[in-house]
Structures are given as C-alpha cells and as structure tokens.
Amino acid sequence: MPKYILIVDDSAIIRKTLRATLEQQGGWEVCGEAANGREGIEKALRLKPDVIVLDLAMPVMNGLDAARELTRLLPSVPLLMFTNFETARLKQEALSAGISTLVSKSESVGVLISGLQALLGRVA
C-alpha cells in the first residue's frame, strides 16, 4: 500500500518538482497539492495523507498557522516544513506549531527524502 503525501507550497514549480522527485521513491504517491495553507487544510481533511510537506511563506495562510490547525484537526499526520527560511527561532516556532521536521530548500534533495522516510516510518 503506498504512502500518500500532500504538498502545500505557493510555487507551482516547487510543487511540480517535488511531485516528480517524491514519486520516484518506491511506494510513495503524491495525493494532492495546495497553493496555500487554507487550501492545504481543506485537502488534508478530504485526502487523509500519511504526511504533509508545508512551505512557510504562502499567501492566505502561512505554513505555521496551517501547521497549528492541521495538528489540531489531524494530530496523527506528521508535518514536514520545507522552507527557504531556516533559523533557530523558526525551528523552535515550527516545533511548537506541530511540525515534526524542518528542511531547508537549500539542502540536497536527499535530506528531504531522509526526513520524509523517517516520518513515514512512524506512520502505521
């Protein structure tokens, strides 16, 4: 049975690249995409993904606000923040908001894959 991933990022190019990269991994399937946090919450409730990849800076609702809401509504779904803005303060704020893992977009794709593998390994 595949593991389902929801991508929430305001950049269509990032969503497309992430989808292609993640679906190359055996047993992973991108079940949906959203362009902002509000849309991400709506899709998460409908699609019930195994993990959600969230950007930080998005219109309508940012990744931290979306993470707080997703953690309340879907507490068993792990969240990975994939962002350009990695600071110690943001990492602490992200963890407080319910983010399990924070990965910088400047890291190699292997770091993102490893982070997702760790989170998906925890999903029963």
Structure overview:
By secondary structure, the protein is of the alpha/beta class. It has five helices and five strands. The chain has helices spanning 12-23, 37-47, 63-73, 88-97, 109-122; strands at 3-8, 28-34, 51-54, 79-83, 101-104. Strands 2-1-3-4-5 form a five-stranded parallel beta sheet, with helices on both faces. Strand 4, helix 4 (88-97) and strand 5 form a beta-alpha-beta unit. Helix 2 (37-47) packs parallel to helix 3 (63-73) and helix 3 packs parallel to helix 4. The protein is globular and about 35 Å long. The mean pLDDT is 92.
Short description:
The chain is an alpha/beta fold and 124 residues long. The protein is 47% helix and 21% strand.
List keywords for this structure.
single chain, 124 residues, alpha/beta, five-stranded parallel sheet, 5 strands
Beta-strand fraction estimate: 15-25%
Q: How can the largest sheet be summarized? A: 5 strands, parallel
Helix content: 40-55%
Strand runs, count: 5
Count the DSSP helices. Answer: 5
What's the N-to-C terminus distance? 11 Å
The rough form would be described as globular
Mean pLDDT over the residues:
92
Instruction: Report the radius of gyration as a whole number of Å.
Output: 13 Å
Structural class of the helices, strands and pairings?
alpha/beta
Oligomeric nature of the chains: single chain
Strand order of the largest sheet: 2-1-3-4-5
Q: Flag low-confidence runs.
A: none
Order of helices and strands: EHEHEHEHEH
